[in-house]
Write a structure and sequence with these properties.
The chain is of the alpha/beta class. It is built from 15 helices and 13 strands. The two termini are 28 Å apart.
Length: 340
């Protein structure tokens, strides 16, 4: 494949450019559908006049449907995007980024999507779609999936599709609620993911931050104890990685704890643990749910995090060597490789 692409670059450079452009248009339709031509034009930074010709071609090739509500991909269009994905990744250099990060970070798999989610909400949607596809590709029948909270995981939930080839899938929150918007809490994301995937779910109705006394009392409650046992038996955990300061503020963390986080030079956060650049834990929030030590026995630990601003946080967390699969974007991937 690589040698063929190199030959095409030399002999037919215009062909690859046209293919990339048309792939990008179809990909944007997939992320925004149903979408009108004007909104699509604005998102792509392309004139409506140029876009009109491309849309007509897609319609003639039965790649899109055009209705009053907007354009949507046909099954043929979706299948074509999937078929082209590997080749486009080679052309854009994403395959190289994936293999290099996989080796540097000692991971089972790395998935990199094009762009920087710090710069475009559409890239974050594509990151969510890649995360959803990764879940589906690694899931087996009768498995439990533990899902964390956060804005990125909320996007993953939005992009989930029915798990038609999987039976008896249970989604559970990886931890109690976060002190942030309800839509970004693990319970909400877990329920939405299960609904879109046509799976089942259980919810964990406990606060995120607890005193030691409250924590020890709550985890002994029979119903909580039973659910925690189910959560820790999960064969897959899907979570995000946060910037330390951003997460501390979002949780309305007390001033003295923020000072501790800053003094410890924390750059990343996951599961209520705050890490410095060397991956050392400098602060931990007392939470009910999955703890770092639980991840060591879980076969598939999928981290979904993107944006160039998240690179330091991702690298700090990766020093724990608990993740098996990283789903990220080009912005974060390039920044990560600059540190090696």
């Amino acid at each position: 494949m690589h040698s063929l692409i190199e030959a095409q670059k030399k002999l037919l450079p215009d062909l690859l450019q046209i293919m990339q452009k048309r792939y990008q248009i179809l990909q944007t339709i997939r992320l925004m559908q149903p979408v009108g031509r004007r909104n699509l034009s604005n998102s792509l930074g392309m004139s409506e006049r140029v876009l009109r010709g491309e849309v007509q071609l897609f319609k003639e090739q039965n790649l899109i449907d055009i209705r009053p509500s907007g354009m949507t991909l046909t099954k043929e269009g979706s299948d074509l995007l999937l078929a082209l994905e590997g080749m486009i990744k080679d052309v854009l250099g994403l395959t190289f980024l994936e293999s290099t990060l996989k080796e540097k970070l000692h991971l089972q798999e790395v998935i990199v999507v094009s762009g920087d989610s710090d710069q475009s909400p559409l890239v974050k949607k594509e990151l969510g779609r890649a995360g959803a596809m990764c879940i589906m590709n690694h899931l087996k029948d009768h498995e439990t999936v533990a899902v964390a909270g956060g804005t990125t995981l909320a996007t993953v939930a939005e992009m989930m599709v029915p798990l038609s080839h999987h039976q008896d899938i249970l989604f559970v929150p990886a931890r109690g609620g976060l002190g942030e918007n309800v839509e970004n809490q693990a319970n909400t994301i877990c329920a939405k993911m299960a609904d879109r995937a046509h799976g089942k779910y259980r919810l964990l109705h406990v606060p995120d931050q607890l005193s030691k006394e409250a924590y020890e009392s709550i985890i002994e409650e029979p119903s909580i104890k039973e659910l925690l046992s189910i959560i820790r038996s999960a064969k897959m955990v899907v979570h995000g990685i946060g910037d330390a300061k951003t997460m501390a503020i979002r949780r309305k963390t007390p001033k003295e704890e923020i000072e501790k986080i800053e003094k410890g030079k924390a750059v990343g956060e996951a599961f209520g643990y705050y890490f410095n650049q060397d991956g050392e834990v400098v602060h931990k929030v007392q939470t009910v749910g999955i703890q770092l030590e639980d991840l060591k026995t879980i076969p598939n630990v999928i981290a979904v995090a993107g944006g160039s601003s998240k690179a330091k946080a991702i690298k700090a967390y990766m020093n724990q060597s608990l993740v098996t699969i990283l789903v990220t974007d080009e912005g974060a991937a390039n920044e990560l490789l600059r540190d090696f």
